[in-house]
Amino acid sequence: MAILLVDDSLDDCLLIGAYLKSAGYVVVPTGSGKEAIHYLARLSSGESLAAIDLILLDIKMPGFDGLDVCTRIKSMQQFEAVPILMVSGDTTQGTILLAFRRGAVDYIRKPVIKVELLAKVSMILRAQQDAKLRLESEKTARQKANIHPAPTIDVLTGLMHWWSFDELFEQEWGRAAQEQLPLSLLLVTFENFKNFNDSYGYLTGDECLQKIAQIVQETFAKPGQVVARARGAEFVVLLFGTGAEDAKLMAEHLHDSIEALDLGPLVAVGAATTNPTEETSRSALLASARNAVLDRK
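Request: output the structure for the sequence above.
Response:
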């Protein structure tokens, strides 16, 4: 398996690269975020380069820092599902939280300890491989049953994947504008989910996300209600024709339902509503929902 290593420190790049190579991984070293993005762009254009299974990304770099690079990679549809492991000496809670919000799956501190690095890399790649196998198995089963594939789903939770949701979001936005109806969006996030994973393990974290996904799906199963997994430990609910007051009540009910599960992580649910017009946008609605989440924390 090939790992894209992004670090402006030559010493760290050589050391981490040596650790990874000792475990049999192919390492593609890059010295900056710009160089890493360029490599992925070349790969996306069809050049004969090593396909990337995991990205190790330093945070403190000149030019594009690791958080900006993480955002850019997650905006590239071909690489949106490639896991990103952040590597940095910055252990402040705000930086770690921001890394997860940008799409990182885990965080490892410098100076890097070999056994910790290889354990996390192995665990992330194994989970990624298991997800791919489940997806292939489901695809094969549908083909044998001659069933048209459903919208792309997130293999862990069984919910609609973000990319499919975004396409549906655009369609529903246009329909709401045409019918002059409101559109509401709920955003579900979790505080310190990284700490929860570190304390109880990733299998427990995955089970937690699966239970939450189930209750969100069961709560919003009516026509005009769409549930999807966003990025990391985030879920979104699109409510067609639902006004602001009803959306807030639904958000409070969902929050209470998840809290009643007593799973561990603190949950926050934000709600935002708009009437789609030429003066409004989907990104603004999502930003309003995210601000509503921050207001509740």
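The first helix runs from residue 10 to 22.
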